[in-house]
C-alpha cells in the first residue's frame, strides 16, 4: 500500500549511491590490492598510517553526529580537541600517568560539551556562535598557557594482539595499534549499534528530528540534549588525547590543524551515521597517508603543492560521487522551547 | 448510540481557567466525558479548544479548576501523567518523526526492548499489527512515515495512543488535513473505537461532521463553554449561531452569473509534479469574466499542479494557457500578476505570506517595486504602512495592527491578509486554491463574499477546493478533475453531491 521511490534497508537508511560512486570504491579497492602485491611493505605502512590518520577524524565525527542527531550543531569540535590535547599533555607531564592523562583529556572535552549545551539550550544562543566561542577560547587558552620545551616520559605504545598481529596485511594494520586506536574502532561499531538499535538511539534521533513529538510521548528533550552533547564532548577530548598521547607525544600550538572541521565534513559525507563516517574518515586518512608516501618517492616533476592537495581532491571526487543527497536531522540548530 | 454508559464519567473538568499573557484562554470551563461516547467540542479558531485539550493532556497547567480522570482528582504535571492514566491525544499537527518507521514512531518513549535497552523491532511491529487488526486501522508497521498519505499518518497517531493503552482519545481537528473520503474512514474508525469502550473527544469547527459523528456536542466561544447540544435536535445553523454568537449565513448568497468575454483558456495542458510524474494530463478549461468555475476533485488529482502552472509557479510541459488574449504559457508569476491574475495559494504559510514580515509588508509583496511603494532602489515606508493600515481595516484583519508580523495571526486572519493583498488591485482572473481550508466560520463567510464580489466586479474566477460543499456553494460551473483531466463540466444546477461524488471517484455519471 505504500510506494517508495528509493530502496530502503531494514534500518530505514536509504541507499541511493549513484553508480559512479560504487565504481570508484571498487576501483580504489583494486588499486589498493595491486599496490600491496607490488610493494608489500610500503603498502602495509600506508594502510596502517591510514588507520592512524583517520582516528582523530572519526572521533571528531562521532562527536559531531551524536550532537546533531540530538539537535545540537557542534562546530566547536576543533576547540574541544585542541584543549583536550593540551590538558591531556599537561596531565601527562605533571602526573606522569598516561591513563589519567587520557581521562583528563576526555573530561576536558566533556566539560566543553556541557558548556556548549548550556549556551545552546539554557542561554538559547545561536549554536554556531556557541561553537565558535569554544574554538576561539581553546586557541586562546592553549596559546596563553603554552610552555615551550615541556617533555614527557612517554606516549601510548602499540600493543600487538598476539597471533592476530601476524596475519599478513591485516595483522600490522588492525592488530598492532595503540589503545586509543583500538578503542576508536570499537566505538564506531558501538555507536552504530546504539544509534539504530537501542532505546537511547531511537530517542536521540527523535529529539533531533522532531522534538515536540518526543516531548508529547514523555521524553525530556532538553535533558537528552544536555546528556548527549556532554557525552559527545568526551569523544572530541579523546581525539585530542590521541594527538598528544598517542600520535605525537608532545603538544604544539594549533596542533589540531583543522581536524575538527574535517571531522564535520566526514560526518556529513557519512550521512550522520558512524559507519558511513568511518568510511569517509578512512578515505581521507588513506589519501593523507598516500600523500606522505609520495613525498618520499621523489616525484620531483609534480609541484609539492599538488601533492599536498591530493587528499582533498581524492576525497571530493570519491565522496561527491558516492554520497549523493544527504539530509541532516531536521531539528538541528533549533532551540526547543515547550509552551 | 448504544455503547455509551452514562453512569461512568471517565473524564471531567471542573471550572478550568487558563490565562496567557493578555488572553483569558479558558474561563471556568466544565466538561464531562462518558464511557464510549464521542463528545464533539465545537468552536472557532481561538475559542480555547486546543488550550483546554492541552491541559487535559498535561502539556499546559490550569491556573484554576480541577481535572478528574476515572474518578480520581489529579494535577497532571506532564503528558506522561496523562498517558499513564489512559489519555491519548492526536494533535492537529502530527507528532510523528517523518524519517522513522511506523513501528518506531509508535513505540517511541514506551519502547519494547529485549534486554539492556536494545529495541525489539519485530515485537513492536507485531504489536502494531495486532492493534491495527483489533481496531480496523490499516497500516504497514515497516513503512517510513513520510512516505504515507496524511490519512494513514493519522491512523499511526491513533495506534500510538492505543499502544499506550489509551481509552480516552482526544482528536484535535482531525479532519482538517483529510479528504472527504479519509474523513469518512476516520468516522468509521471512531465508531469502531467507541464500540470497544474507548471514549473520544473530537475537536472541530466543521458543523456537518459534528452532526454526523457526535453523541453530544459542547460549544466553546471566547474561552467559555457557551452551551451543549444533542445532534438529534440541532441543525448546522443552530450550531453555527452558538459557535459564532450571531446568526451566520452558511450558504453563499449570490446573484445569477453574468458571463461575459473569455478570460482564461487552457488547452491540452500537461504538467509534471515534483517527482517528475505527469500529473496534469491534457486539461481543457475555459473561464469567462463574471463567472466562477469551481474545480472539484479528490486531492492529488493534479489540482495543485494545474494551479501552479496557471500562476507561473510550475513549468508547463505541453499545451497552452491564454489569459485575456495573451499567451501566458511560459509567464513568470510576476508577469502573470501584471496581467491581472490574483492568486490565493493553497498553502498560505508557505506560499502566501512571509511569516516574519509585518502585515503591511506582506500586503505589498506583489507590487512593492512599483510606485508609490518604491522609488528607485528605496522603499517608501510611509506609503507601505498607510496601504497596510487601510487594507487591515477594510478587510477586518484582527488584530487591526499593520505592524504585527504575519506569523502571529490566526489562520482565518492570515487568509484575510492574502485576500486583501490580492483583491486590492484590478483583477481579471482570480485563482483561489483551498481558499477557506482550516479557517473559522466567520472568516469563511467573509472570504466567500469577497470572492463573489470579485465575480460581480467582472473578474473570471477559478476556485479549487477539496471541500465539495465549497465548490457547490460558490461555483456557477463545476469542473470535476480526476487523474489529471477535467472529466466533466456541469452547470451548478445539475451538479448534485451524488453525481459530482461519483465523477470525483472516476466513474462516469
What would your notes on this structure say?
- The complex is a heterodimer of chains A (339) and B (509).
- Chain A is an all-alpha fold and 339 residues long.
- Chain A has a single domain, classed as Orthogonal Bundle (ABC transporter involved in vitamin B12 uptake, BtuC).
- Helix content of chain A is 69%, strand content 1%.
- Chain A has 13 helices and two strands, in the order H-H-H-H-H-E-H-E-H-H-H-H-H-H-H.
- Chain A has helices at residues 19-38, 40-70, 77-94, 98-122, 127-144, 170-174, 179-197, 199-209, 211-216, 221-247, 259-269, 274-297, 304-323; strands spanning 159-160, 176-177.
- Chain A has a two-stranded antiparallel ribbon.
- Chain B has 509 residues and is of the alpha/beta class.
- Chain B has three domains: 5-244, P-loop containing nucleotide triphosphate hydrolases (Rossmann fold, 3-Layer(aba) Sandwich); 250-340 and 426-509, 3-Layer(aba) Sandwich (Rossmann fold), CATH 3.40.50; 350-425, no CATH class.
- Chain B contains 17 helices and 22 strands.
- Chain B has helices spanning 49-56, 79-84, 102-107, 121-134, 150-163, 180-195, 207-213, 236-244, 303-310, 333-339, 348-352, 359-363, 381-394, 411-423, 441-456, 468-474, 497-504, and strands at 5-20, 23-35, 38-42, 64-69, 72-74, 87-90, 168-172, 199-204, 216-221, 224-229, 262-272, 278-288, 292-296, 316-323, 326-327, 341-344, 374-375, 378-379, 429-433, 460-465, 477-482, 485-491.
- In chain B, the strands form five sheets. Chain B has a six-stranded mixed β-sheet with strand order 6-7-8-3-9-10, with helices on both faces. In chain B, strands 16-19-20-13-21-22 form a six-stranded mixed β-sheet, with helices on both faces. Chain B has a four-stranded antiparallel β-sheet with strand order 2-1-4-5, covered by helices on one side.
- The longest helix of chain B is centred in the middle third of the chain and has 16 residues, at 180-195.
- Chain B is globular, with a radius of gyration of 24 Å.
- Chain B starts with a strand and ends in a 5-residue tail after the last helix.
- The mean pLDDT of chain B is 89.
- Chain A binds chain B through residues 1-5, 8, 12, 197-203, 205-206, 209-210, 212-219, 327, 330, 338-339, and chain B through 57, 59-60, 78-80, 83, 89, 91, 94-101, 104-105, 107-111, 113, 116-119, 138, 140, 143-144, 147-148, 152, 160, 164, 275.
Amino acid at each position: 500500500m505504500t510506494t517508495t521511490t528509493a530502496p530502503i534497508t531494514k534500518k530505514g537508511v536509504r541507499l541511493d549511491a549513484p553508480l559512479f560512486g560504487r565504481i570508484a570504491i571498487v576501483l580504489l579497492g583494486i588499486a589498493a590490492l595491486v599496490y600491496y602485491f607490488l610493494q608489500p611493505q610500503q603498502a602495509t605502512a600506508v594502510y596502517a598510517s591510514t588507520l592512524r590518520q583517520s582516528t582523530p577524524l572519526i572521533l571528531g565525527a562521532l562527536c559531531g553526529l551524536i550532537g546533531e542527531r540530538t539537535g545540537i550543531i557542534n562546530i566547536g569540535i576543533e576547540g574541544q580537541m585542541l584543549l583536550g590535547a593540551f590538558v591531556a599533555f599537561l596531565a601527562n607531564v605533571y602526573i606522569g600517568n598516561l591513563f589519567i592523562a587520557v581521562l583528563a583529556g576526555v573530561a576536558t572535552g566533556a566539560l566543553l560539551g556541557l558548556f556548549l549545551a548550556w549556551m545552546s539550550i539554557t542561554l538559547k544562543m545561536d549554536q554556531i556562535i556557541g561553537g565558535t566561542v569554544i574554538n576561539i577560547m581553546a586557541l586562546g587558552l592553549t596559546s596563553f598557557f603554552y610552555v615551550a620545551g615541556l617533555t614527557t616520559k612517554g606516549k601510548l605504545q602499540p600493543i600487538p594482539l598476539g597471533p592476530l598481529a601476524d596475519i599478513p596485511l591485516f595483522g600490522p594494520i588492525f592488530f598492532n595499534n595503540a589503545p586509543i586506536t583500538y578503542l576508536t574502532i570499537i566505538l564506531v561499531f558501538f555507536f552504530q549499534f546504539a544509534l539504530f538499535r537501542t532505546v537511547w538511539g531511537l530517542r536521540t534521533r527523535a529529539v533531533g528530528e522532531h522534538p515536540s513529538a518526543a516531548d508529547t510521548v514523555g521524553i525530556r528533550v532538553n535533558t537528552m540534549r544536555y546528556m548527549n552533547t556532554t557525552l559527545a564532548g568526551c569523544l572530541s577530548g579523546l581525539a585530542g588525547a590521541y594527538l598528544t598521547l598517542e600520535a605525537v607525544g608532545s603538544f604544539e600550538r594549533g596542533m589540531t590543524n583543522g581536524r575538527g572541521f574535517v571531522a564535520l565534513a566526514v560526518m556529513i559525507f557519512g550521512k550522520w551515521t558512524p559507519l558511513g563516517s568511518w568510511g569517509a574518515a578512512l578515505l581521507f586518512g588513506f589519501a593523507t597517508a598516500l600523500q606522505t608516501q609520495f613525498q618520499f618517492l621523489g616525484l620531483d616533476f609534480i609541484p609539492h603543492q599538488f601533492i599536498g592537495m591530493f587528499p582533498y581532491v581524492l576525497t571530493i571526487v570519491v565522496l561527491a560521487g558516492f554520497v549523493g543527497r544527504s539530509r541532516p536531522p531536521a531539528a538541528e540548530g533549533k532551540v526547543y522551547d515547550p509552551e | 448510540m448504544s455503547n455509551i454508559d452514562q453512569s461512568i464519567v471517565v473524564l471531567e473538568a471542573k471550572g478550568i481557567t487558563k490565562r496567557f499573557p493578555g488572553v483569558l484562554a479558558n474561563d471556568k470551563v466544565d466538561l464531562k466525558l462518558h464511557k464510549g461516547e464521542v463528545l464533539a467540542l465545537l468552536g472557532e479558531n481561538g475559542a480555547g479548544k486546543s488550550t483546554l485539550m492541552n491541559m487535559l493532556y498535561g502539556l499546559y497547567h490550569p491556573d484554576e479548576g480541577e481535572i478528574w480522570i476515572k474518578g480520581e482528582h489529579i494535577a497532571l504535571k506532564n503528558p506522561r501523567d496523562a498517558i499513564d492514566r489512559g489519555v491519548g491525544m492526536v494533535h492537529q499537527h502530527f507528532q510523528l518523526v517523518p524519517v522513522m518507521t511506523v513501528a518506531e514512531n509508535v513505540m517511541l518513549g514506551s519502547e519494547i526492548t529485549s534486554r539492556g535497552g536494545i529495541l525489539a523491532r519485530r515485537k513492536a511491529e507485531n504489536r502494531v499489527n495486532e492493534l491495527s487488526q483489533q481496531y480496523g486501522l490499516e497500516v504497514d508497521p515497516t513503512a517510513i512515515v513520510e512516505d504515507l498519505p496524511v490519512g494513514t499518518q493519522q491512523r499511526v497517531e491513533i495506534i500510538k495512543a492505543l499502544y499506550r493503552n489509551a481509552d480516552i482519545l482526544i482528536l484535535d481537528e482531525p479532519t482538517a488535513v483529510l479528504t472527504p473520503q479519509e474523513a469518512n474512514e476516520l468516522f468509521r474508525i471512531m465508531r469502531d473505537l467507541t464500540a470497544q469502550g474507548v471514549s473520544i473527544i473530537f475537536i472541530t469547527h466543521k458543523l456537518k461532521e459534528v452532526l454526523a459523528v457526535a453523541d453530544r456536542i459542547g460549544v466553546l466561544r471566547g474561552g467559555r463553554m457557551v452551551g451543549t447540544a444533542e445532534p438529534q435536535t440541532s441543525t448546522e445553523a443552530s450550531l453555527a449561531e452558538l459557535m459564532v454568537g450571531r446568526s451566520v449565513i452558511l450558504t453563499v448568497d449570490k446573484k445569477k452569473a453574468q458571463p461575459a468575454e473569455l478570460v482564461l483558456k487552457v488547452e491540452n495542458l500537461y504538467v509534471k509534479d515534483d517527482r517528475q510524474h505527469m500529473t496534469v494530463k491534457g486539461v481543457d478549461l475555459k473561464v469567462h469574466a463574471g463567472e466562477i468555475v469551481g474545480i472539484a476533485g479528490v486531492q492529488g488529482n493534479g489540482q495543485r499542479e494545474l494551479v501552479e502552472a496557471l500562476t507561473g509557479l510550475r513549468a508547463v510541459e505541453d499545451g497552452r494557457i491564454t489569459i485575456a488574449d495573451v499567451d501566458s504559457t511560459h509567464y513568470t508569476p510576476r508577469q502573470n500578476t501584471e496581467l491581472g491574475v490574483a492568486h490565493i495559494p493553497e498553502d498560505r504559510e508557505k506560499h502566501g505570506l512571509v511569516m516574519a514580515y509585518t502585515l503591511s509588508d506582506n500586503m505589498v509583496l506583489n507590487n512593492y517595486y512599483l510606485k508609490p511603494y518604491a522609488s528607485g532602489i528605496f522603499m517608501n515606508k510611509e506609503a507601505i504602512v498607510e496601504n497596510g493600515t487601510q487594507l487591515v481595516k477594510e478587510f477586518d484583519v484582527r488584530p487591526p495592527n499593520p505592524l504585527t508580523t504575519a506569523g502571529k495571526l490566526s489562520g482565518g486572519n492570515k487568509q484575510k491578509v492574502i485576500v486583501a493583498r490580492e483583491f486590492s488591485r484590478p483583477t481579471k482572473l482570480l485563482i483561489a486554491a483551498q481558499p477557506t481550508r482550516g479557517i473559522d466560520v466567520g472568516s469563511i463567510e467573509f472570504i466567500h463574499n469577497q470572492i463573489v464580489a470579485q465575480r460581480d466586479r467582472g473578474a473570471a474566477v477559478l476556485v479549487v477546493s477539496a471541500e465539495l460543499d465549497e465548490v457547490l456553494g460558490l461555483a456557477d460551473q463545476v469542473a470535476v478533475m480526476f487523474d489529471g483531466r477535467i472529466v466533466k463540466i456541469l452547470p451548478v444546477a445539475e451538479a448534485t453531491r451524488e453525481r459530482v461524488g461519483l465523477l470525483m471517484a472516476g466513474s462516469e455519471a
